[in-house]
Amino acid sequence: MAQEMEYWDEDRYLELNTYFRIKIQGMVDSDPYIRDLQKSEDGLQLTDLINRMSASDQELWDEFIKLDRIKLHLDMQNHLEGKGTPFTPRHGFGDASSEADDNASPW
Prior knowledge:
Layout: H1 10-30, H2 32-39, H3 46-51, H4 55-80
Helix pairs in contact: 1-4
Region (Disordered): 81-107
């Protein structure tokens, strides 16, 4: 993980987070296959969404997941060292005051 830390790019993380937030919502709203999965007994799984993405979006997703793992590591490290936003069960490492502007906060 230490070697991966050099690849942390908060701006890119936020850019990809916003992109996928919009992309996935669009898929849920417009793809009949995805809507049918939502209503099915097994429900909609993240892998179902990823498998419906284009190859280029799947590559971007892989990049996002790598950045997300680094962010989680940083958040946990900061939490253990008493730095950053403390962890809460309701908001994770996010800021509880961001409820009013939920769209601006990462997933």
